[in-house]
């Protein structure tokens, strides 16, 4: 018996038959692409069409093959098809609804593809016609809303979300997508919230729902009142906010798990064995191969939730028993949801035990810990553009958290202690920290560790100035809270001081190269003022009097770096160049640091001479410091505990426009190739009752 082959809507018997036979649905598409009304000869045409399995490839290809003029000739039939698709969404038979949803996807994408090359027609007019646009789009949005909120098929809900994502991302710049005006007017916000608040719906559709919401929030956000922004900012329903947090935590956890798996696979490989033999000469190069695709879409969703909704801040610190984080999960039953866009989903709402802290005594985690781990991975390598954007967005999210009073309260809470295993970049001059030695500390310690890690590991030729500025600002904001609330944090402050001094040293060593691209004095001033903050207010927030003594010891021990910095800024502030003003600000900011150095150095030298000691120990220097505080005179500096609050619209608009554009392209690409296969859907609706 001859085998039948199928390609591009053609059926061909592989033996004798010469003329290919077309599928019935393809013949029906061909009728739509004529200037005649297809229902003239066949009154049941539209009814029959939606019983046929959609051929997406053929329908989109047919639309793309036409030029603008040809498309305008069949506009009435395109309008008719669009309207009948919307009517079919109200049908009882799910097969018709599935086929209508898929046809709408093909139509929207196909017509938008044409618009890229020919702007001789309006998209809305081409799809629905101006005269019927408002009513048609209202009916479409209401039908999608009904399907999303109904208790029916999960596959139908999934396809509704795919259609909405298709609708939102057909243009690279979503703010130029005029169809979204109808999505603004006919809101599906409540339907998205319902998905997030229901455990079953969330497990199946949570990822797509969260990405859709993040994109809708960014539609013309600076130009007009976006109802999704307004509504998201006032959500106070706990199950809904927790549901959103669970979806984000799940996606970030999956990234962390994939990275950890690749890292372990990498370390156990042959290259690792060679590296161990020769020493750590090649370790940085080896690490570059560990790469997992970053997930900017889910990070954007986290940002919008943190930035817009004060109530969401509480979600960051909540443990998730539903995800198996309060206790080790006992044989979770995996499900297989439709693959979301741009990432591989976790198997269910239960996060694998790999996400648990490694120490057996600690079985709790939360969204903030998962986010900090994610940040520690993506911020390692900022040479790649996607990772640079991800790293910047991580720091923006942390900036919003560091400014929030409630977030600071739980960050600094002594009763909320965690072991947070951050990823550390392999470096030649340090050993890998043993995970089991991590102490249990308030969460702010992990944030500070992340900042210190970034400062230490990114002093390079392609200097990420913007990220360094954000990093120092986050530290400053945390210190302002500690000073204001007199929180005495038991932290290894020496590591921070050492990192900051080494940063100043790097800026001075690379003055010529860096000044060609950056105003390094802005960063230098911020670093110097962090030291001024410790000097002026350290007695109110450093954990012990000896911590304050150690601060002075570090300044005295590393005095050469501060002396060199003073010489550099003095030189540039006395010249009439472009750096005169910013350099002079650093000169003035160094006054107390120089006073400390000039006051204690002669005392230390005198102590050494009297006691005939060539090199003093740390304890001996500290003894000199403690006994000579009384005669030290410092100037009171104003504004050290003040900062400018984060503002997206004025400073970050360009970054977010570019980021959303990149996410839109990525979502569309993944939607096109991964998620519109009909086989799974039709299996569910194999019989029509």
Automatic annotation (TrEMBL):
Predominant subcellular localization, coarse grouping: membrane
Keyword Membrane: yes
Transmembrane segments: none
UniProt feature, compositional bias: Low complexity: 338-348
SMART domains (UniProt xref): DUF1741
Top-level taxon in the UniProt lineage: Eukaryota
Coiled coil segments of this chain: none
Signal peptide residues on this chain, from the entry's feature table: none
PANTHER family for the chain: ARMADILLO-LIKE HELICAL DOMAIN-CONTAINING PROTEIN 3
Protein name: ARMD3 protein
Source organism phylogeny: Eukaryota, Metazoa, Chordata, Craniata, Vertebrata
């Amino acid at each position: 018996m001859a085998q039948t082959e199928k390609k591009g809507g053609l059926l061909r018997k592989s033996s004798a038959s010469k003329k290919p036979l077309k599928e019935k649905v393809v013949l029906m598409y061909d009728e739509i692409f004529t200037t005649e009304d297809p229902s003239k000869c066949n009154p049941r045409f539209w009814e029959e069409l939606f019983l046929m399995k959609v051929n997406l490839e053929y329908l989109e290809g047919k639309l793309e093959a036409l030029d603008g003029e040809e498309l305008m000739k069949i506009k009435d039939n395109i309008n008719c098809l669009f309207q009948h698709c919307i009517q079919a969404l109200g049908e009882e038979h799910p097969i018709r609804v599935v086929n209508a949803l898929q046809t709408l996807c093909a139509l929207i994408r196909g017509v938008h593809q044409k618009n890229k090359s020919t702007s001789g027609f309006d998209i809305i007019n081409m799809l629905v016609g101006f005269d019927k646009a408002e009513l048609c789009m209202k009916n479409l949005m209401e039908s999608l809303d009904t399907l999303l909120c109904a208790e029916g098929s999960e596959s139908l809900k999934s396809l509704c979300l795919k259609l909405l994502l298709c609708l939102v991302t057909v243009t690279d710049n979503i703010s130029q997508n005029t169809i979204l005006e109808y999505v603004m007017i006919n809101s599906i916000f409540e339907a998205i919230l319902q998905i997030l608040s229901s455990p079953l719906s969330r497990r199946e559709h949570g990822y797509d729902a969260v990405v859709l919401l993040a994109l809708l929030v960014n539609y013309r956000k600076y130009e007009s009142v976006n109802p999704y922004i307004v509504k998201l900012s006032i959500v106070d329903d706990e199950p809904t906010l927790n549901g959103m947090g669970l979806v984000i935590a799940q996606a970030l956890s999956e990234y962390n798990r994939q990275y950890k798996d690749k890292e372990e696979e990498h370390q156990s490989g042959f290259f690792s064995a060679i590296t161990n033999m020769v020493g750590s000469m090649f370790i940085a190069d080896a690490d570059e191969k560990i790469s997992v695709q970053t997930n900017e879409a889910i990070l954007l969703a986290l940002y919008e939730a943190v930035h817009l909704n004060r109530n969401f801040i509480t979600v960051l610190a909540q443990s998730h028993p539903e995800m198996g984080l309060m206790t080790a999960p006992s044989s979770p039953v995996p499900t297989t949801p439709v693959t979301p866009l741009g990432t591989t989903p976790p198997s269910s709402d239960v996060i694998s035990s790999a996400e648990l802290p490694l120490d057996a005594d600690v079985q709790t985690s939360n969204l903030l810990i998962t986010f900090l781990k994610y940040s520690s991975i993506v911020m390692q390598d900022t040479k790649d553009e996607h990772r640079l954007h991800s790293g910047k967005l991580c720091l923006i999210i942390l900036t919003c958290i560091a400014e929030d009073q409630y977030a600071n309260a739980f960050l600094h809470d002594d009763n909320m202690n965690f072991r947070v295993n951050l990823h550390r970049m392999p470096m030649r001059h340090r050993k890998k920290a043993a995970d089991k030695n991590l102490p249990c500390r308030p969460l702010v310690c992990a944030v500070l560790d992340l900042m210190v890690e970034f400062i230490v590991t990114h002093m390079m030729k392609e200097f990420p100035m913007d990220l360094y500025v954000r990093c120092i600002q986050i530290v400053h904001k945390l210190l302002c809270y500690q000073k204001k609330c007199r929180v005495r944090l038991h932290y290894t402050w020496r590591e921070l001081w050492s990192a900051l001094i080494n940063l100043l040293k790097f800026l001075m060593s690379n003055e010529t190269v860096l000044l060609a691209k950056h105003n390094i004095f802005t960063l230098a001033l911020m670093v110097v003022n962090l030291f001024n903050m410790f000097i002026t207010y350290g007695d109110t927030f450093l954990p012990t009097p000896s911590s304050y003594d150690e601060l002075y010891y570090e300044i005295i021990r590393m005095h050469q770096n501060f002396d060199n910095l003073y010489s550099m800024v003095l030189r540039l502030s006395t010249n009439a160049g472009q750096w005169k003003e910013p350099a002079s600000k650093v000169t003035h900011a160094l006054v107390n640091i120089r006073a400390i150095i000039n006051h204690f150095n002669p005392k230390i030298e005198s102590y050494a001479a009297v006691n005939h000691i060539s090199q003093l120990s740390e304890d001996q220097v500290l003894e000199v410091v403690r006994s000579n505080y009384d005669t030290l005179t410092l100037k009171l500096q104003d504004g050290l505990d003040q900062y400018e609050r984060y503002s997206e619209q004025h400073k970050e608009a360009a970054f977010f426009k570019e980021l959303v554009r990149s996410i839109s392209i990525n979502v569309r690409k993944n939607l096109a190739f991964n998620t519109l296969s009909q086989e799974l859907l039709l299996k569910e609706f194999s019989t029509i009752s």
